[in-house]
Design brief:
- By secondary structure, the chain is mostly beta strands.
- It has no helices and 5 strands.
- Strands 1, 2, 3, 4 and 5 form a 5-stranded antiparallel sheet that branches.
- The radius of gyration is 14 Å and the shape is elongated.
- The model has no long low-confidence stretch (mean pLDDT 90).
């Protein structure tokens, strides 16, 4: 509890239109069903500066902007371990 998690790293996007343009948007969820965008977190990977206060899933949404194709990386769960 309180430890800053390691970054979540996803491979660079590939495929799509002949000259693809990719937009990344990181999302979070506490149940892996309902997802919300994380404002301003649009890099290939996600770095953390604080620990979530509850177990939280993170995933990267990739949009190939020319074709509009959207894909998601596999969710990563950041868990919380409470020490006595």
């Amino acid at each position: 509890s309180g430890a800053v998690p390691h970054p979540v790293i996803c491979s660079p996007a590939e495929g799509g239109y002949c000259s693809p343009i990719y937009h990344y948007q990181w999302q979070r969820s506490t149940n892996a069903v309902a997802w919300s965008d994380i404002d301003g977190v649009t890099g290939q990977n996600i770095d953390f500066t604080i620990s979530p206060d509850q177990p939280t899933y993170f995933r990267r949404k990739t949009t190939e902007t020319v074709s509009g194709t959207i894909v998601y990386c596999e969710p990563a769960l950041i868990g919380i371990i409470f020490k006595k």
